[in-house]
Amino acid sequence: MKARSPTRAVASRALLPLLLAAGFLLLLIVLASLLYGAGPVSAAQAFSALTGDGTSDATFVVTELRLPRTLIAMTTGLALGLAGALLQSMTRNPLAEPGLLGVSAGSGFAVALAILLGATTTTLTTLVAQAGALAGCALVIATTRVQGLGNDPVRLILAGATMTGLLLALTSMMMLMDQRAADEIRFWITGSVAGKPLAILKATLPSIVLALTLIVLVARPLAAMALGEKAALGLGHHPGRIRFLITITVALLVGSATALAGPLIFVGLVVPFIARAFSGPDIRKTLWLCVPVGPAVVLGADVISRLVAAPAEMPLGVVTALIGAPVLLTIVRSGRMPSL
């Protein structure tokens, strides 16, 4: 059996404490999500329900309302965090993010169109969202291949913002065409995990499991591509094939997240930024850290959305935007992008 190199062993040991710390933080946020929320059930009553001594009303709120919401928010954060890390590594651009490059907007536009046409089943919504994300991701890849554009982070983001604005405008036009669908689309595009049934999570699980499997396959070649395409070819990898697999993976992840919570922006920027700050440039370690950090960010934002305007709730998409905008400014002003 091949001996494990000392460098790799040290790197694994360094990663484990980070994963444990992030996992512990996630557990605390999960507990807060189950204990706190809008409604007459207090934290003490919710805790009693978790221990099996609560009233029937408190048990219903915790198990039927807050628990599904918690699971959906965690899955959304996992999907968007991993998708953002993959996009940033593939484009070699720290600003690449599904919400900024039109991937989420493409997914959202497709779902809004499906709602306008009368789609109601969760499975159909998930498939349509993934198709829209695939189209948006394909546009991102095409954009990065344009000479002089893909290598400039600011111009790439401007191109993505233009595409996002166009798709949002078309979505707004659809809302004017059908008042029946307008209310549902309006609630959906603001981003929310409130009131979502577990059925919609079950419908997205096969896609997420497939995406996680693909990530396992592309993680090592993607790390090699960070050394350059010639180096990756010399190591026996095929960059074109890897980009294709990443495109499919991102479409599966973003489509699933959009079907679950709507088109949330900045999550795919914030999560890899936090993970990379602790893990360094190795995409494999970044992806591992995104697993607990992504759910923690979205679930934490959801808890804030419940409490900041209680007894009402602030849209989740607004909270993620308020969190992500300062991170975007930090990255732009950090001076780590030579093209700026």
TrEMBL record:
Keywords from the UniProt entry: Cell membrane, Membrane, Transmembrane, Transmembrane helix, Transport
Keyword Transmembrane helix: yes
Entry membrane topology: Multi-pass membrane protein
Subcellular location: Cell membrane
Transmembrane segments: 67-87, 99-119, 156-177, 198-222, 242-275, 287-308, 314-332
Pfam families hit by this protein: FecCD
Family the UniProt entry places it in: Belongs to the binding-protein-dependent transport system permease family. FecCD subfamily.
Family matches, as PANTHER family: FE(3+) DICITRATE TRANSPORT SYSTEM PERMEASE PROTEIN FECC-RELATED, FERRIC ENTEROBACTIN TRANSPORT SYSTEM PERMEASE PROTEIN
Name under which the protein is recorded: Iron ABC transporter permease
Organism: Marinobacter daepoensis
Taxon lineage: Bacteria, Pseudomonadati, Pseudomonadota, Gammaproteobacteria, Pseudomonadales
